[in-house]
Design a protein that fits this description.
Strand content: 5-15%
Order of helices and strands: HHHHHEEHH
Distance between the termini: 75 Å
Number of helices: 7
Structural class: mainly alpha
Helix content: 55-70%
Shape: elongated
Number of strands: 2
Radius of gyration: 25 Å
């Protein structure tokens, strides 16, 4: 590995020294804000244009950001959580793991105690599991009730 040039070392040292100075950080922030406000229209057009050209990537980035926040909220490792989600999406083939309907708005179904991803489900199935408090015994009782009932026979 070659040794960096002297001016790069000086610049790096200056940058970190200045970055740790609160007054300088505020000055940079204000400068960036003014630059953004001057060019806001161009920046917004560029971002919206990129989103229009890349809807799949935009959706992917939005979902990843959301799932990262979910992982942090539940005290999970975001990298492992995202890997589990990727695996679950591949396995589900775009269908709900419970009712097998096409997923429009997929929900990550996971155990709140362990944080392990169980699968990808639709909003209705996820709500149903939530109403039954993720209890297998309650779900079995509901199945028994439905099979005994004359109205659903």
């Amino acid at each position: 590995m070659s040794r960096p040039r002297r001016n790069e070392e000086v610049h790096r040292a200056w940058y970190w020294r200045v970055k740790s100075d609160p007054k300088q950080r505020k000055k940079w922030k204000d400068s960036d804000r003014k630059k953004y406000l001057r060019n806001k229209k161009k920046i917004v057009e560029r971002v919206l244009g990129w989103r229009k050209k890349n809807p799949e990537k935009c959706l992917l980035y939005t979902r990843r950001c959301h799932y990262r926040k979910v992982a942090v909220r539940h005290g999970l490792d975001p990298a492992k959580f995202l890997a589990d989600i990727e695996t679950a999406f591949k396995v589900s083939d775009g269908l709900c793991d419970i009712c097998r309907k096409k997923l429009n708005e997929p929900v990550i179904e996971h155990c709140h105690r362990t944080g392990l991803v169980r699968g990808i489900v639709c909003q209705q199935c996820n709500s149903g599991l939530g109403f039954f408090k993720d209890s297998v015994s309650l779900l079995k009782k509901a199945v028994d009730y439905l099979t005994r009932s004359k109205a659903f026979a």
